[in-house]
Amino acid sequence: MKAVILAGGEGSRLRPLTLGRPKPMTPLFGKPVLGHILDLLRRHGVTEAAITLRYLPAAVTDYFGDGAQLGMSLTYFVEEEPLGTAGGVKKCMDFLGEEDFLVVSGDAVCDLDLGELIALHKSRRSVATLALCRRSEPLEYGLVRTDSQGRVLGFVEKPGWGQVDTELVNTGLYILSHKAMEPVEEGKSWDFGKDLFPQLLERGEALYGWEVPGYWQDMGDCAAYLECVHDALEGRVALDLSAGQGPRPAGVEVKEPCWIGRRVSLAPGCTVGPYAVLGEGSTVATGAVVERSVLLGASVGEGAEVTGAILCKGAAVHRRAMVNPGAVLGEEAVVGPEAIVASGVKLWPRRRVPEGGKATASQVTAGEAPPLKFSAGGVLRGDVGEELTAETMLALGALLGEKGQVGVGWSSGEAAAMLGRALGCGVAAAGGTALVSDAPCPSAGAWLAKTYQIPLSAFVTQDGDAAELRVFAPDGLPLGRPEQRKLEGGLLRGEGSRAPAARVGAFETVTGVRSGYAAEAAALSRLTAIPLRPVSVWVPKGGVENQVLSAALTALGCHVSRGEGRGMPIFSADWGGFRLAAWDEAGHPVSSDHLLVLLTRIEMEHGSGRTVLPAWAPAAADTVAESFRGSLLRLGRDGEEARRLWGEQPWMWDAVFAACRICARLGLTGETLSALCHGLPLFATARGEVGLRSGRGRLMGAALAQPGARPQGEGARIQVGEGWVYVIPNSRRQALRVIAEATTMEAAQELCARYQEKLRQMDERE
Fold this sequence. Notes:
With 766 residues, this protein is of the alpha/beta class.
């Protein structure tokens, strides 16, 4: 059997380790990672391989040549333009002929049993057989859903936690038939997981996925690289560690397990290990300590300490300096005497920490602090001056500025203003135009993005010492997860444009957002052109969101009193203007779940007869839609159509629009809010959480296997008797969130507690 090795990766997340070399050439125990993959193929009798290249192809071809010295025959295919994983393999079809063939990544560390995978492929006669492995934290991988017989049911590429319902992930190692490649167009960019495999499933072709014995690890970033080193030294992965290994010097304390290469200089009195790898040309001086670290031809001075770090070729750590876990020093980076490199800090090549200095932020090309991660709600949150700094905002602005126009807004404090201005400077530095608005709150910033169709818009708010940043797409909705990942990756890699003086961007001011936002909320929320009966409402005094809400309700024709009292409904906006709180005329709270169902009823009666809700929203909304013979979509489950409709109905996610929509209904019919709520189906919801010992994906898969379970795109909805339970992974903790729905609060709480216990028992069995 022939093989195709995909080796065109740049390895941007592994920087600075991969600067100047393609990812498959990353050194690991004296040879490139790709060399270990070739060893794996040869051990299983595969001696003919095509290698697809794109980034710095000569680095691979010059090192391996025709493969004769390895006992193999290697043929190279260089991509001038990126063709994707499947597109790159398509280019090799003449080499492969008509027989089944193997596809493997050239930058993963693995010793999977290829013989068993080939045997399984032949026994099932499938067009494609995928090697799978389990990951309890699968967000950086592609999920593969299979039935009990191993037949593939579907794929989810780079999921959010809400989409995780299995722990089985795609390793990128496949056995394919010639037929499997027929849909791939020559010269076009095609990906296996996103394009080809889903199309084969639609055609009814048989694809199988198997968890085969052995080890597999995507060497995606520096932490994963160190994990591979640790596992190899532990013997968890079968790699040939003999090549390039040198003798153990006398008079040196070596704590096993360790790997010491040739021409390594270790002075008496130094301590090496455990879990240390010292590549060729490394030196360690007297009194120095190197543990759980990789030196790729670096030097460590007298009395210095290096723990859990990676030091590239030519990097130097001088006397009594300290390099902490997670740090990475690029080639020829220097840490001066008695200096400190903090945990997680990366120094790009030839960067220097002065004597006695302390590096607490990464020093990369763009000079920015380490990046942040978007939360499940699409928010970047952190302490001002620590996680959220002016440098971070400059770097983010430079990434956003590549889109041209970028909306910029802030509220609630001088720190938010500082961060917003820094972001605008980054936009201008990239040659973009920063549209600085007077939007009073994030929801107004979202409205501005949609109204002006701004490619990207950002809004910063302050909460004490912390700040939050939201980024909106042109439809006014938060960026999708793929776009968020691009920004996270760009921050990590120090990307972002810097324009010359002649092309530096400009600042423009957009005013009148508050009044325009309030006026449009009132105008679009009307259900009819018929004049409305006056509706009297309370709006609390606090918060800029409530100032806008009061203006919008007044524009609708309501009599608005600021404060709180009885006899009139109360509406309040919070969480940046995206969450509505309400109380009826008697002062009874109307839950957020009931408000969603109420808005669904209004849309069914007076709107288009179609609406969309989040995956977690109550099943009672489906009952309302069915009673009006309407259509209810769910975000995540119903794809782009659901997102488009969600953007067209801002009252479903914007507190100002929602309050106007409800008051428009009250003004049309003359009902009270209490009476309107009493017309909804009887239901109550209770919420809980279950901490897990096993993985979230594994338990979600078990939950979906329960009778009455329905996938929701994000999470699972399970019918239990006459009630419903919604289960979704917690994005921050090893836990599942549970929302139970029943006709009464007592029944909902009992159902929630019962299902929490059921999940605990399932967790124990797993």
